[in-house]
Amino acid sequence: MEADPLAGVDQVPWFDVDHAYGEATDLPKNLRRLQSPDKDTRQGALYTLYGSICHQGSRYTSTPLAVPFLYRLIERPDTPERGELLLFLAFIATGLNSDELPLGTDVALQRKRVAELRADPNRAKIIKDGLDEFLGDTISDEDKEYAFKGQNNEYLRSYIKSLRASGVPEDEADWWSPEVRSYNVVQDGLDTAYRCLKDESAEVRTSAAYLLAWFPDRMSDSEQHLMEMLDSEQTPVALATAIISLATLQAMKEDFSETRIVHRLRDIQSRSSSCLVTWASSFSLVKLRVNTEKELTEVMKLITGDDQYPERLKEELEKEKFPFLDGRPSALTSLAARELQHLKGSKHPEMVKIIASATAFSRGMDLVTISSALLNIAFDGVRPDSEPDFDDLNDLQQEVMRALNNTLEKRFEFGNYMMVLESWNLPSRAEDFKVFIKHPDAFQSRL
Questions:
Q1: Which of 3, 251, 298, 442 has the fewest Cβ atoms within 10 Å of its own Cβ atom?
Q2: What is the mean pLDDT of the chain?
Q3: 10 Å Cβ neighbour count for 163?
Q4: Would you call 226 exposed, middle or buried from its count of C-beta atoms within 10 A (0-12, 13-18, 19+)?
Q5: In the predicted model, what is the mean pLDDT of residues 185-194?
Q6: φ and ψ at 19, to 5 degrees?
Q7: How far apart are CA 284 and CA 276, in angstroms?
Q8: How confident is the model at residue 153 (pLDDT cuts 50, 70, 90)?
Protein backbone atom coordinates (compact mmCIF):
# COMPACT_ATOMS: atom_id res chain seq x y z
CA MET A 1 0.00 0.00 0.00
CA GLU A 2 1.36 3.41 -0.93
CA ALA A 3 2.39 5.37 2.15
CA ASP A 4 0.94 8.67 0.96
CA PRO A 5 -2.00 8.69 -1.48
CA LEU A 6 -1.30 12.37 -2.16
CA ALA A 7 2.34 11.89 -3.09
CA GLY A 8 3.12 14.17 -6.02
CA VAL A 9 0.25 16.56 -5.41
CA ASP A 10 2.66 19.45 -4.88
CA GLN A 11 4.34 18.80 -8.25
CA VAL A 12 1.15 19.55 -10.19
CA PRO A 13 1.27 23.11 -11.64
CA TRP A 14 -1.92 24.19 -9.87
CA PHE A 15 -1.05 27.84 -10.45
CA ASP A 16 -1.50 27.23 -14.18
CA VAL A 17 -5.02 25.86 -13.89
CA ASP A 18 -8.20 27.38 -12.58
CA HIS A 19 -11.31 26.67 -10.56
CA ALA A 20 -14.39 28.74 -9.77
CA TYR A 21 -12.40 31.27 -7.75
CA GLY A 22 -9.24 31.66 -9.81
CA GLU A 23 -5.90 29.85 -9.62
CA ALA A 24 -6.23 26.38 -8.13
CA THR A 25 -3.26 26.72 -5.77
CA ASP A 26 -5.39 25.81 -2.73
CA LEU A 27 -6.23 22.32 -3.99
CA PRO A 28 -3.30 20.48 -2.33
CA LYS A 29 -4.29 21.93 1.04
CA ASN A 30 -7.93 20.94 0.68
CA LEU A 31 -7.10 17.46 -0.60
CA ARG A 32 -4.90 16.92 2.47
CA ARG A 33 -7.65 18.17 4.75
CA LEU A 34 -9.76 15.21 3.56
CA GLN A 35 -7.41 13.05 5.67
CA SER A 36 -7.77 15.15 8.83
CA PRO A 37 -8.77 13.34 12.05
CA ASP A 38 -11.24 16.16 12.66
CA LYS A 39 -14.60 15.60 10.99
CA ASP A 40 -15.47 19.29 10.71
CA THR A 41 -12.16 19.92 8.93
CA ARG A 42 -12.83 17.08 6.48
CA GLN A 43 -16.37 18.21 5.77
CA GLY A 44 -15.18 21.78 5.29
CA ALA A 45 -12.59 20.63 2.79
CA LEU A 46 -15.12 18.59 0.82
CA TYR A 47 -17.56 21.51 0.82
CA THR A 48 -14.79 23.77 -0.50
CA LEU A 49 -13.90 21.30 -3.25
CA TYR A 50 -17.52 21.02 -4.34
CA GLY A 51 -17.67 24.79 -4.58
CA SER A 52 -14.35 25.27 -6.36
CA ILE A 53 -13.68 22.47 -8.86
CA CYS A 54 -17.33 21.58 -9.50
CA HIS A 55 -19.15 24.79 -8.68
CA GLN A 56 -22.88 24.31 -9.34
CA GLY A 57 -21.99 21.51 -11.75
CA SER A 58 -19.37 23.46 -13.75
CA ARG A 59 -15.99 21.81 -14.26
CA TYR A 60 -12.68 23.65 -14.71
CA THR A 61 -9.16 23.03 -15.99
CA SER A 62 -8.12 21.91 -12.50
CA THR A 63 -10.97 19.43 -12.07
CA PRO A 64 -9.58 16.45 -14.03
CA LEU A 65 -6.18 16.91 -12.36
CA ALA A 66 -7.74 16.41 -8.92
CA VAL A 67 -9.59 13.20 -9.80
CA PRO A 68 -6.64 10.73 -9.60
CA PHE A 69 -5.83 11.96 -6.08
CA LEU A 70 -9.44 11.45 -5.01
CA TYR A 71 -9.32 7.90 -6.32
CA ARG A 72 -6.07 7.24 -4.45
CA LEU A 73 -7.66 8.49 -1.23
CA ILE A 74 -10.63 6.18 -1.80
CA GLU A 75 -8.29 3.21 -2.31
CA ARG A 76 -6.98 3.68 1.23
CA PRO A 77 -9.29 1.88 3.72
CA ASP A 78 -8.26 4.30 6.46
CA THR A 79 -9.48 7.36 4.52
CA PRO A 80 -12.60 8.73 6.24
CA GLU A 81 -15.86 9.27 4.33
CA ARG A 82 -14.81 7.29 1.25
CA GLY A 83 -18.47 6.90 0.33
CA GLU A 84 -18.85 10.67 0.13
CA LEU A 85 -15.75 10.92 -2.06
CA LEU A 86 -17.24 8.38 -4.48
CA LEU A 87 -20.40 10.47 -4.68
CA PHE A 88 -18.24 13.54 -5.31
CA LEU A 89 -16.65 11.75 -8.28
CA ALA A 90 -20.12 11.08 -9.68
CA PHE A 91 -20.89 14.77 -9.32
CA ILE A 92 -17.64 15.69 -11.06
CA ALA A 93 -18.48 13.35 -13.93
CA THR A 94 -22.10 14.42 -14.45
CA GLY A 95 -22.46 17.88 -12.90
CA LEU A 96 -25.99 19.13 -12.38
CA ASN A 97 -27.53 17.38 -15.37
CA SER A 98 -31.03 17.33 -13.96
CA ASP A 99 -32.41 16.63 -17.42
CA GLU A 100 -30.38 13.41 -17.57
CA LEU A 101 -30.59 12.05 -14.06
CA PRO A 102 -31.78 9.43 -13.40
CA LEU A 103 -32.38 8.73 -17.10
CA GLY A 104 -28.71 8.31 -18.00
CA THR A 105 -25.75 10.30 -19.28
CA ASP A 106 -25.43 11.03 -23.00
CA VAL A 107 -21.68 11.52 -23.01
CA ALA A 108 -21.59 10.46 -26.68
CA LEU A 109 -23.38 13.70 -27.53
CA GLN A 110 -20.80 15.73 -25.61
CA ARG A 111 -17.93 13.95 -27.35
CA LYS A 112 -19.55 14.48 -30.72
CA ARG A 113 -19.65 18.18 -30.02
CA VAL A 114 -15.95 18.18 -29.17
CA ALA A 115 -15.13 16.23 -32.35
CA GLU A 116 -17.05 18.75 -34.42
CA LEU A 117 -15.09 21.56 -32.84
CA ARG A 118 -11.81 19.79 -33.54
CA ALA A 119 -12.75 19.51 -37.21
CA ASP A 120 -13.82 23.14 -37.44
CA PRO A 121 -11.36 25.02 -39.71
CA ASN A 122 -12.23 28.29 -38.03
CA ARG A 123 -9.78 27.87 -35.17
CA ALA A 124 -9.67 31.56 -34.37
CA LYS A 125 -13.37 31.74 -33.58
CA ILE A 126 -13.17 28.63 -31.42
CA ILE A 127 -10.34 30.14 -29.41
CA LYS A 128 -12.22 33.41 -29.08
CA ASP A 129 -15.30 31.62 -27.81
CA GLY A 130 -13.20 29.59 -25.41
CA LEU A 131 -11.40 32.70 -24.22
CA ASP A 132 -14.73 34.40 -23.63
CA GLU A 133 -15.85 31.47 -21.48
CA PHE A 134 -12.51 31.38 -19.69
CA LEU A 135 -12.65 35.06 -18.79
CA GLY A 136 -16.35 35.03 -17.90
CA ASP A 137 -17.35 38.17 -16.04
CA THR A 138 -13.85 38.87 -14.72
CA ILE A 139 -13.25 41.71 -17.21
CA SER A 140 -15.37 44.12 -19.18
CA ASP A 141 -16.65 43.43 -22.69
CA GLU A 142 -14.32 46.16 -23.95
CA ASP A 143 -11.28 44.43 -22.46
CA LYS A 144 -12.45 41.15 -23.99
CA GLU A 145 -12.45 42.78 -27.39
CA TYR A 146 -8.87 43.94 -26.80
CA ALA A 147 -7.92 40.40 -25.84
CA PHE A 148 -9.64 38.94 -28.92
CA LYS A 149 -7.76 41.34 -31.19
CA GLY A 150 -4.42 40.54 -29.59
CA GLN A 151 -4.13 43.98 -28.00
CA ASN A 152 -4.04 42.44 -24.54
CA ASN A 153 -2.09 39.21 -24.87
CA GLU A 154 -1.91 38.74 -21.11
CA TYR A 155 -5.38 37.20 -21.06
CA LEU A 156 -4.72 35.01 -24.09
CA ARG A 157 -1.41 33.81 -22.64
CA SER A 158 -3.13 32.97 -19.35
CA TYR A 159 -5.77 31.01 -21.21
CA ILE A 160 -3.32 29.01 -23.35
CA LYS A 161 -1.20 28.41 -20.25
CA SER A 162 -4.15 26.81 -18.52
CA LEU A 163 -4.73 24.56 -21.53
CA ARG A 164 -1.16 23.33 -21.59
CA ALA A 165 -1.10 22.74 -17.85
CA SER A 166 -4.19 20.56 -18.10
CA GLY A 167 -2.29 18.26 -20.45
CA VAL A 168 -4.17 19.06 -23.67
CA PRO A 169 -2.52 20.83 -26.61
CA GLU A 170 -4.23 24.08 -27.46
CA ASP A 171 -4.71 23.02 -31.08
CA GLU A 172 -7.03 20.25 -29.90
CA ALA A 173 -10.70 20.87 -29.20
CA ASP A 174 -10.84 18.85 -25.98
CA TRP A 175 -9.82 21.92 -24.00
CA TRP A 176 -13.14 23.47 -24.97
CA SER A 177 -14.93 21.01 -22.75
CA PRO A 178 -13.47 20.46 -19.28
CA GLU A 179 -16.71 18.60 -18.59
CA VAL A 180 -15.75 15.88 -21.08
CA ARG A 181 -12.18 15.71 -19.77
CA SER A 182 -13.40 15.39 -16.20
CA TYR A 183 -15.90 12.71 -17.19
CA ASN A 184 -13.20 10.73 -19.02
CA VAL A 185 -10.79 10.83 -16.07
CA VAL A 186 -13.46 9.62 -13.65
CA GLN A 187 -14.30 6.82 -16.07
CA ASP A 188 -10.64 5.83 -16.29
CA GLY A 189 -10.65 5.10 -12.56
CA LEU A 190 -13.73 2.87 -12.36
CA ASP A 191 -11.67 -0.18 -11.43
CA THR A 192 -11.47 1.42 -7.98
CA ALA A 193 -15.27 1.56 -7.87
CA TYR A 194 -15.47 -2.13 -8.83
CA ARG A 195 -13.26 -3.02 -5.88
CA CYS A 196 -15.36 -0.84 -3.60
CA LEU A 197 -18.46 -2.91 -4.40
CA LYS A 198 -17.02 -5.53 -2.03
CA ASP A 199 -15.97 -3.09 0.69
CA GLU A 200 -16.87 -3.76 4.32
CA SER A 201 -18.72 -0.45 4.49
CA ALA A 202 -22.30 -0.47 3.17
CA GLU A 203 -22.01 3.26 2.49
CA VAL A 204 -18.95 2.70 0.28
CA ARG A 205 -20.67 -0.15 -1.57
CA THR A 206 -23.76 2.01 -2.12
CA SER A 207 -21.79 4.98 -3.43
CA ALA A 208 -19.67 2.79 -5.72
CA ALA A 209 -22.80 1.21 -7.22
CA TYR A 210 -24.24 4.67 -7.82
CA LEU A 211 -21.08 5.91 -9.54
CA LEU A 212 -21.21 3.07 -12.08
CA ALA A 213 -24.63 4.15 -13.37
CA TRP A 214 -23.27 7.02 -15.48
CA PHE A 215 -20.67 5.31 -17.69
CA PRO A 216 -22.20 3.43 -20.62
CA ASP A 217 -18.75 2.95 -22.19
CA ARG A 218 -17.97 0.55 -19.34
CA MET A 219 -21.39 -1.06 -19.48
CA SER A 220 -20.25 -4.63 -19.96
CA ASP A 221 -17.86 -4.67 -16.99
CA SER A 222 -20.20 -2.66 -14.78
CA GLU A 223 -23.18 -4.92 -15.48
CA GLN A 224 -21.12 -7.97 -14.55
CA HIS A 225 -20.02 -6.46 -11.23
CA LEU A 226 -23.49 -5.16 -10.39
CA MET A 227 -25.12 -8.50 -11.17
CA GLU A 228 -22.67 -10.15 -8.78
CA MET A 229 -23.59 -7.56 -6.17
CA LEU A 230 -27.27 -8.49 -6.51
CA ASP A 231 -26.39 -12.03 -5.42
CA SER A 232 -24.51 -11.04 -2.27
CA GLU A 233 -25.75 -7.65 -1.03
CA GLN A 234 -27.79 -7.71 2.20
CA THR A 235 -28.15 -3.99 2.95
CA PRO A 236 -31.42 -2.71 1.37
CA VAL A 237 -30.17 0.73 0.31
CA ALA A 238 -27.03 -0.71 -1.31
CA LEU A 239 -29.06 -3.38 -3.10
CA ALA A 240 -31.65 -0.84 -4.28
CA THR A 241 -28.88 1.42 -5.61
CA ALA A 242 -27.26 -1.45 -7.51
CA ILE A 243 -30.64 -2.37 -9.02
CA ILE A 244 -31.34 1.13 -10.33
CA SER A 245 -27.77 1.59 -11.59
CA LEU A 246 -27.98 -1.68 -13.47
CA ALA A 247 -31.29 -0.68 -15.06
CA THR A 248 -29.97 2.80 -15.91
CA LEU A 249 -27.04 1.31 -17.80
CA GLN A 250 -29.28 -1.18 -19.58
CA ALA A 251 -31.79 1.53 -20.51
CA MET A 252 -29.04 3.63 -22.09
CA LYS A 253 -28.65 0.90 -24.70
CA GLU A 254 -32.18 1.67 -25.82
CA ASP A 255 -32.37 -2.09 -26.17
CA PHE A 256 -34.94 -3.59 -23.83
CA SER A 257 -34.57 -7.19 -24.94
CA GLU A 258 -32.16 -8.17 -22.13
CA THR A 259 -34.42 -10.71 -20.46
CA ARG A 260 -31.68 -11.91 -18.08
CA ILE A 261 -31.74 -8.64 -16.15
CA VAL A 262 -35.55 -8.40 -16.28
CA HIS A 263 -35.90 -11.92 -14.88
CA ARG A 264 -33.39 -11.16 -12.12
CA LEU A 265 -35.22 -7.99 -11.11
CA ARG A 266 -38.58 -9.75 -11.07
CA ASP A 267 -37.12 -12.43 -8.83
CA ILE A 268 -35.85 -9.82 -6.37
CA GLN A 269 -39.16 -7.96 -6.57
CA SER A 270 -41.13 -11.06 -5.59
CA ARG A 271 -38.85 -12.19 -2.75
CA SER A 272 -37.65 -9.04 -1.00
CA SER A 273 -39.11 -8.02 2.35
CA SER A 274 -37.74 -4.48 1.95
CA CYS A 275 -40.11 -1.79 0.66
CA LEU A 276 -37.16 0.09 -0.83
CA VAL A 277 -35.81 -2.94 -2.70
CA THR A 278 -39.28 -3.93 -3.94
CA TRP A 279 -39.96 -0.39 -5.15
CA ALA A 280 -36.49 -0.09 -6.76
CA SER A 281 -37.09 -3.35 -8.63
CA SER A 282 -40.47 -2.17 -9.92
CA PHE A 283 -39.06 1.26 -10.76
CA SER A 284 -36.21 -0.36 -12.72
CA LEU A 285 -38.56 -2.68 -14.58
CA VAL A 286 -40.60 0.36 -15.69
CA LYS A 287 -37.33 1.98 -16.76
CA LEU A 288 -36.78 -1.11 -18.92
CA ARG A 289 -40.30 -0.64 -20.34
CA VAL A 290 -41.88 -3.53 -18.45
CA ASN A 291 -45.13 -1.62 -18.06
CA THR A 292 -47.39 -4.28 -16.59
CA GLU A 293 -50.05 -3.33 -14.06
CA LYS A 294 -47.98 -4.79 -11.22
CA GLU A 295 -44.94 -2.61 -11.87
CA LEU A 296 -46.92 0.55 -12.59
CA THR A 297 -49.01 0.11 -9.44
CA GLU A 298 -45.90 -0.34 -7.32
CA VAL A 299 -44.24 2.77 -8.70
CA MET A 300 -47.45 4.79 -8.38
CA LYS A 301 -47.72 3.96 -4.66
CA LEU A 302 -45.24 6.74 -3.99
CA ILE A 303 -47.63 9.21 -5.58
CA THR A 304 -50.92 7.89 -4.20
CA GLY A 305 -49.63 7.20 -0.70
CA ASP A 306 -51.47 3.87 -0.81
CA ASP A 307 -51.42 1.85 2.41
CA GLN A 308 -48.90 4.21 4.05
CA TYR A 309 -46.34 2.87 1.61
CA PRO A 310 -44.27 6.07 1.39
CA GLU A 311 -44.01 6.27 5.19
CA ARG A 312 -42.75 2.70 5.48
CA LEU A 313 -40.29 3.24 2.68
CA LYS A 314 -39.00 6.49 4.16
CA GLU A 315 -38.36 4.70 7.45
CA GLU A 316 -35.85 2.52 5.60
CA LEU A 317 -34.27 5.56 4.00
CA GLU A 318 -33.63 7.12 7.39
CA LYS A 319 -31.14 4.34 8.14
CA GLU A 320 -28.87 4.87 5.11
CA LYS A 321 -28.37 7.54 2.45
CA PHE A 322 -29.91 6.65 -0.92
CA PRO A 323 -27.82 8.44 -3.58
CA PHE A 324 -30.57 8.68 -6.20
CA LEU A 325 -32.52 10.99 -3.87
CA ASP A 326 -29.64 13.37 -3.17
CA GLY A 327 -30.54 13.36 0.51
CA ARG A 328 -34.19 14.33 -0.06
CA PRO A 329 -36.79 11.62 0.69
CA SER A 330 -39.40 13.96 -0.82
CA ALA A 331 -37.71 13.38 -4.19
CA LEU A 332 -39.16 9.85 -4.29
CA THR A 333 -42.37 11.19 -5.81
CA SER A 334 -40.60 13.18 -8.53
CA LEU A 335 -38.29 10.23 -9.23
CA ALA A 336 -41.37 8.05 -9.81
CA ALA A 337 -43.10 10.67 -11.97
CA ARG A 338 -40.04 11.19 -14.16
CA GLU A 339 -39.74 7.48 -14.84
CA LEU A 340 -43.40 7.33 -15.89
CA GLN A 341 -43.15 10.22 -18.34
CA HIS A 342 -42.70 7.97 -21.38
CA LEU A 343 -46.26 6.69 -20.95
CA LYS A 344 -49.24 8.12 -22.82
CA GLY A 345 -52.09 9.73 -20.96
CA SER A 346 -54.54 8.60 -23.62
CA LYS A 347 -53.83 5.03 -22.46
CA HIS A 348 -53.38 5.79 -18.74
CA PRO A 349 -55.84 8.61 -17.89
CA GLU A 350 -56.06 7.66 -14.21
CA MET A 351 -52.29 8.00 -13.90
CA VAL A 352 -52.49 11.56 -15.19
CA LYS A 353 -55.09 12.45 -12.56
CA ILE A 354 -53.02 10.93 -9.76
CA ILE A 355 -49.84 12.75 -10.78
CA ALA A 356 -51.79 15.99 -11.12
CA SER A 357 -52.93 15.62 -7.52
CA ALA A 358 -49.29 15.24 -6.42
CA THR A 359 -48.48 18.79 -7.53
CA ALA A 360 -50.50 20.12 -4.57
CA PHE A 361 -47.89 18.94 -2.03
CA SER A 362 -44.71 19.27 -4.12
CA ARG A 363 -42.13 22.03 -3.82
CA GLY A 364 -39.00 23.30 -5.53
CA MET A 365 -37.33 21.13 -8.13
CA ASP A 366 -39.59 18.20 -7.24
CA LEU A 367 -42.49 20.36 -8.37
CA VAL A 368 -40.70 21.18 -11.63
CA THR A 369 -39.95 17.52 -12.32
CA ILE A 370 -43.49 16.34 -11.56
CA SER A 371 -45.09 19.11 -13.65
CA SER A 372 -42.80 18.36 -16.59
CA ALA A 373 -43.60 14.64 -16.45
CA LEU A 374 -47.31 15.40 -16.04
CA LEU A 375 -47.41 17.54 -19.18
CA ASN A 376 -45.46 14.95 -21.14
CA ILE A 377 -47.91 12.20 -20.21
CA ALA A 378 -51.03 14.36 -20.66
CA PHE A 379 -49.98 15.36 -24.19
CA ASP A 380 -48.73 11.86 -25.12
CA GLY A 381 -45.22 13.28 -25.49
CA VAL A 382 -46.19 15.65 -28.35
CA ARG A 383 -45.47 19.32 -27.68
CA PRO A 384 -47.80 21.89 -29.27
CA ASP A 385 -46.16 23.91 -32.05
CA SER A 386 -47.71 27.07 -30.61
CA GLU A 387 -49.89 28.07 -27.68
CA PRO A 388 -52.95 25.83 -27.91
CA ASP A 389 -56.51 27.04 -27.57
CA PHE A 390 -57.85 25.81 -24.26
CA ASP A 391 -61.09 24.71 -25.87
CA ASP A 392 -59.14 22.50 -28.30
CA LEU A 393 -57.59 20.49 -25.46
CA ASN A 394 -59.23 17.23 -24.50
CA ASP A 395 -60.98 16.87 -21.14
CA LEU A 396 -57.94 15.27 -19.47
CA GLN A 397 -55.57 18.00 -20.66
CA GLN A 398 -57.98 20.70 -19.50
CA GLU A 399 -58.12 19.04 -16.10
CA VAL A 400 -54.33 19.14 -15.92
CA MET A 401 -54.29 22.83 -16.82
CA ARG A 402 -56.78 23.63 -14.06
CA ALA A 403 -54.81 21.56 -11.56
CA LEU A 404 -51.62 23.41 -12.38
CA ASN A 405 -53.37 26.73 -11.97
CA ASN A 406 -55.15 25.81 -8.73
CA THR A 407 -52.12 24.43 -6.95
CA LEU A 408 -49.22 26.35 -8.46
CA GLU A 409 -50.40 29.89 -8.98
CA LYS A 410 -48.21 31.12 -6.14
CA ARG A 411 -45.18 29.45 -7.69
CA PHE A 412 -45.28 30.93 -11.16
CA GLU A 413 -42.39 33.20 -10.25
CA PHE A 414 -40.16 30.12 -9.87
CA GLY A 415 -37.91 30.39 -12.93
CA ASN A 416 -37.46 26.67 -13.59
CA TYR A 417 -41.20 26.14 -13.45
CA MET A 418 -41.79 28.97 -15.89
CA MET A 419 -39.30 27.33 -18.27
CA VAL A 420 -41.29 24.10 -18.16
CA LEU A 421 -44.48 25.91 -19.14
CA GLU A 422 -42.72 27.83 -21.91
CA SER A 423 -41.25 24.61 -23.32
CA TRP A 424 -44.84 23.41 -23.83
CA ASN A 425 -45.87 26.74 -25.37
CA LEU A 426 -48.04 27.53 -22.37
CA PRO A 427 -48.29 30.95 -20.66
CA SER A 428 -45.68 31.31 -17.93
CA ARG A 429 -47.16 34.30 -16.08
CA ALA A 430 -49.90 33.60 -13.53
CA GLU A 431 -52.35 36.18 -14.85
CA ASP A 432 -51.84 35.01 -18.45
CA PHE A 433 -52.37 31.41 -17.42
CA LYS A 434 -55.68 32.29 -15.81
CA VAL A 435 -56.80 33.93 -19.05
CA PHE A 436 -55.59 30.89 -21.00
CA ILE A 437 -57.76 28.48 -18.99
CA LYS A 438 -60.66 30.98 -19.02
CA HIS A 439 -60.65 31.24 -15.24
CA PRO A 440 -63.46 33.53 -14.00
CA ASP A 441 -61.04 35.50 -11.80
CA ALA A 442 -59.06 36.54 -14.85
CA PHE A 443 -62.01 38.31 -16.39
CA GLN A 444 -63.30 39.67 -13.10
CA SER A 445 -59.94 41.45 -12.54
CA ARG A 446 -60.29 43.18 -15.90
CA LEU A 447 -63.72 44.67 -15.19
A1: 3
A2: 82
A3: 22
A4: buried
A5: 96
A6: -135, -165
A7: 12
A8: very low
